[in-house]
Design brief:
The protein is of the alpha/beta class. Helices cover about 25% and strands about 25% of the residues. The strands form two sheets. The chain has a five-stranded parallel sheet, covered by helices on one side. The chain has a four-stranded mixed sheet with strand order 1-2-4-3, covered by helices on one side. A hairpin with a 2-residue loop joins strand 3 and strand 4. Helix 2 crosses helix 5. The longest helix is centred in the first third of the chain and has 12 residues. Pfam families: Rhodanese, TusA. InterPro entries: GlpE_sulfurtransferase, Rhodanese-like_dom, Rhodanese-like_dom_sf, TusA-like, TusA-like_sf. This is Rhodanese domain-containing protein.
């Protein structure tokens, strides 16, 4: 494995815990130090890369060995990089019956086991490559499991010029309606 200043074990934890623990661990690092995050959650690759980019830390990359993902993130100055929450939000209850597009940014397996009928699946890690599949003229309601990945995806869409983007809170954990399954 590569040398890192600090190692963080998040093996066995699912979203949003790898990000939560990484954020806390990064607070204890000095600018320029590298954190190694060990994870088993396949979604952590896209999640940690997007989180780091969102607040200005350098996501160096990931190595997978024996089903463990080793993520490497370099801490960058807090003076110039401030994490912001996406300002346009909508509750999960409010998206029912609206004419916009529901964009589900969870991993493919999460989507397959249960999603809102009609939702489009573009996992967070594929968003950059597939962004042209979305219509800029439609309202886009971005949803994930808890609201963290969708927050990062909403930022990406807004930065790409999408003006009608909403982060759905609190996410699929609060969905009370029917679920469509693809399994």
């Amino acid at each position: 494995m590569l040398k890192a200043d600090i190692q963080l074990d998040t093996k066995g934890l699912a979203c949003p815990m790898p990000i939560v623990k990484t954020k806390k661990a990064m607070e204890g690092l000095v600018d320029g130090e590298v954190l190694e995050v060990q994870a088993t959650d396949k979604g952590s690759k896209a999640d940690l890369a997007a989180w780091a980019g969102n607040i200005g830390h350098q996501y160096i990359g990931t190595i997978e060995e024996n089903e463990i993902l080793y993520h490497y993130i370099r801490k960058c100055s807090k003076d110039i990089n401030v994490e912001e929450t996406f300002e346009n939000t909508i509750s999960i209850e409010e998206i029912t019956g609206r004419s916009g597009v529901i964009l589900d940014v969870r991993e493919e397996v999460e989507y397959a086991f249960g999603h809102i009928e009609g939702a489009i699946s573009i996992p967070m890690g594929e968003l950059d490559a597939r962004i042209k599949e979305l219509d800029m003229d439609k309202e886009i309601y971005v949803i994930c499991r808890t609201g963290k990945r969708s927050d990062m995806a909403a930022h990406k869409l807004a930065n790409a010029g999408f003006n009608k983007v909403y982060n759905v809170l609190p996410g699929m954990t609060a969905w009370k309606g029917e679920l469509t399954k693809n399994i």
